[in-house]
Amino acid sequence: MKKIYLLFSVCVLLFSCSDDDNNDNVDRQKIIGKYYLFSTDDVEVDDCGKETYVDIKSDGTLVSEYFETDGDECISFDGETTYTYTIKNGKITIDNEETDDVEVISYKFVGDDLELTYEEDDKVFVDYYVKAE
């Protein structure tokens, strides 16, 4: 009986891991593309903020640029930045190799769009990005 239970447990574990890997592969394919910021914490950003984007590429790189209003001008906050990323279990791990900063962001698909949840200064933020056509 113990052998049957052990065999069953191993099968469940193997199939569970396999499903996670399959989900990660599906997500990798679906997540590829360019997304523009629409809202932060359910508050729609202004037209300048909507220039903010994240471009997730199939080669494991992610390019982003953040825009903000400065007086009457819409300016890029830090210019375009390139990161490497990995996807696992509903999270994107983003690595800035220049600064050695690593950030883990939870993601969820809303149709073709993307909801990103992250923590900064002990506060949780939810950004909603619209996929470019």
Provide a quick synopsis of the model.
InterPro entries: Calycin (IPR012674), Lipocalin-like (IPR024311). The chain is built from one helix and eleven strands. With 133 residues, it is an alpha+beta fold.
Explain the overall architecture.
Helices cover 23% and strands 51% of the residues. A hairpin with a 2-residue loop joins β9 (101-110) and β10. The relative contact order is 0.16. It has one domain (2-131): Lipocalin (Beta Barrel). The protein is globular. With 133 residues, it is of the alpha+beta class. Strands 1-3-4-7-8-9-10-11 form an eight-stranded antiparallel beta barrel. A two-stranded antiparallel sheet has the order 5-6. It contains one helix and eleven strands. Residues 1-20 have low confidence and may be disordered.
Instruction: Give the amount of beta strand, in percent.
Output: over 45%
Stated plainly, the CATH topology is called Lipocalin
Structural class: alpha+beta
CATH architecture classification: Beta Barrel
For the termini, the CA-CA separation is 57 Å
Report the order of strands and helices: HEEEEEEEEEEE
Basic shape: globular
Organism: Flavobacterium zubiriense
Domain Lipocalin-like: 31-106
Protein name: Lipocalin family protein
InterPro entries: Calycin (IPR012674), Lipocalin-like (IPR024311)
